[in-house]
From TrEMBL:
InterPro entries listed in its UniProt record: LysR_HTH_N, LysR_subst-bd, WH-like_DNA-bd_sf, WH_DNA-bd_sf
Record Pfam families: HTH_1, LysR_substrate
Name listed for the protein in its UniProt record: DNA-binding transcriptional LysR family regulator
Family: Belongs to the LysR transcriptional regulatory family.
Protein's UniProt keywords contain Transmembrane: no
UniProt-listed PANTHER family: HTH-TYPE TRANSCRIPTIONAL ACTIVATOR BAUR, HTH-TYPE TRANSCRIPTIONAL REGULATOR
Organism from which the protein derives: Aminobacter ciceronei
Length: 303
């Protein structure tokens, strides 16, 4: 289909919508004879009569009616293409892909919301793509260039990654209120001295790396890949497991969860914003990093 064909179809569509050749002159800014020539050329191009025109008025033939329906579909598709092309032009170079570990929305030391708000004020028309990922997926997505910035534990840093520490998350061992370890006074005796075995929730991407070496009677009985799944299992009363204190606070406040030997099991995990060393940061990525930087507490840049 050539530009000439599109021109003929445009004239045809306008003639139909205006109700005739003479009434379409103003809309097309063409003479009646020129419009008539275009209609005749279109009939030659498609190979059938598309309308009856004369003293009796303008009327589409059955073939012309079907052609008009097809032309409408064609021009709707062209409009959709133009809109998509415009969106691509608007967002090209202004797309920011973020990968974030789950469960951070309740961490008061960290606020991606404020960083995005600042970004929206400084950079218009930025298309943001945000995915919640476990640490191992963050690491691979960063390495493969699927995301611009990763926000998660700094343990995933490699030589190819630049890391800016932004806060440290406190994590503690928890059990539910109906678990036998729920009484703080007897936790140490039951957990360490009793010799009983306790079902433990392990995060799949960490395996047993968070299982305390000084507690040898924990049995990995469940494997999860998100903080929410770990909380569900712990709340069932059958398992114990580690949760970030900020994430567990909502259930701790309602007495549904209890910390287990916090003086022994609590530890902190450094979190950072990371990007590939060979990746040229967009203006949007730089704004987000700059907004997250003031959150650093006791940490600094790490290469």
């Amino acid at each position: 289909m050539s530009d000439f064909d599109l021109r003929l179809l445009t004239v045809f569509k306008t003639v139909v919508e205006c109700g005739g050749l003479s009434t379409s002159q103003s809309a097309l800014d063409m003479s009646l004879s020129n419009i008539s020539t275009h209609m005749a050329n279109l009939e030659k191009r498609v190979g059938f009569k598309i309308c009856n025109r004369g003293r009796s008025g303008f009327k589409l033939t059955p073939g012309g009616t079907e052609l008009y329906a097809s032309v409408e579909e064609l021009f709707q598709s062209i409009d959709q293409f133009q809109n998509k092309a415009w969106c691509t032009k608007t967002h090209i170079g202004k797309e920011l892909c973020l990968g974030i570990i789950d469960g951070l929305i309740s961490e008061r030391q960290f606020s991606i919301q404020k960083a995005i708000q600042s970004l929206s004020l400084q950079e218009r028309n930025v298309l943001i793509r945000m995915d919640i990922m476990p640490p191992n997926k963050l690491k691979s997505s960063l390495a493969e260039g699927d995301i611009d910035l990763a926000i998660g534990p700094t343990s995933i840093v490699s030589k190819a990654v630049v890391c800016q520490e932004i806060f440290r998350e406190k994590i503690t061992l928890y059990c539910a209120k109906n678990h036998e370890l729920s009484e703080p006074e007897t936790q140490q005796e039951r957990l360490i001295r009793s010799g009983a075995t306790f079902d433990f929730v392990s995060r799949g991407y960490l395996r047993e790396s968070q299982q305390p070496s000084y507690i040898d009677n924990l049995r990995t009985a469940a494997i999860v890949h998100s903080m929410e799944a770990a909380a569900m299992l712990i709340l069932s009363g059958k398992y114990i497991g580690f949760l970030p204190d900020h994430f567990a606070r909502r259930w701790e406040d309602t007495k549904e969860l209890t910390r287990v030997l916090p003086s022994m099991t609590s530890h902190t995990v450094p979190f950072g914003v990371m990007y590939r060393r060979d990746h040229k940061l967009s203006r949007g990525a730089k704004v987000v990093i700059e907004q997250l930087r003031p959150m650093v507490s006791g940490g600094g840049a790490s290469d």
